[in-house]
Amino acid sequence: MKSRQSLHIKTYCMILIMVVFGPLGNIFLSKGMRGVGSAATWSLSTLPQIFQQVFTAQFIWLGVASLIAFFVAYMLILSWADFSYVQPASAVSYLLVAVLSTFFLGEKITPLHWAGVAVICLGVLVVGNTPPRTTKAN
Predict the structure, then answer these.
(1) What's the domain range around 72?
(2) Closest alpha carbon to 86 in 138, 55, 127
(3) Of the four listed, 2, 8, 26, 134, which is most buried by Cβ atoms within 10 Å?
(4) Which residue in 73, 76, 31 sits closest to 54, CA to CA?
(5) In a domain, 133, yes or no
(6) pTM (2 decimals)?
(7) Which has the closest alpha carbon to 125: 3, 14, 15, 4?
(8) In a domain, 138, yes or no
(9) pLDDT (tens digit, 9 = 90+) per residue, 83-117?
(10) Could you tell me if residue 31 is inside a domain?
């Protein structure tokens, strides 16, 4: 049986990977798709060209790779920590999404949005002070 301390370290490391790579993947995908253009203007005759743009866009591939890293970390952490701990604890990624979208995508974040992000982060602090596993391992 692994020690409680090593479980906490693994859990925090995987949550950190999830918090970084999930938003990063979404930001990269957004940046890549902005380079391809709006789907509202696509026609059936332009689909081959659009697919070629999508599958050769570096930001889209960076996004896919980041989201794969996120998904692997997510699967691993769910094998040793409760979902009721993992999901709220990983919600701190909303802060990273707001920061990255402001600086990397040039989006404007309203004060009300920042207030919501602050509330989410306070909730993460509360959840972070609970044990990651409350059920018995199978």
Answers:
(1) 4-37+44-128
(2) 127
(3) 26
(4) 31
(5) no
(6) 0.77
(7) 15
(8) no
(9) 888 888 788 899 999 999 999 999 999 999 999 99
(10) yes
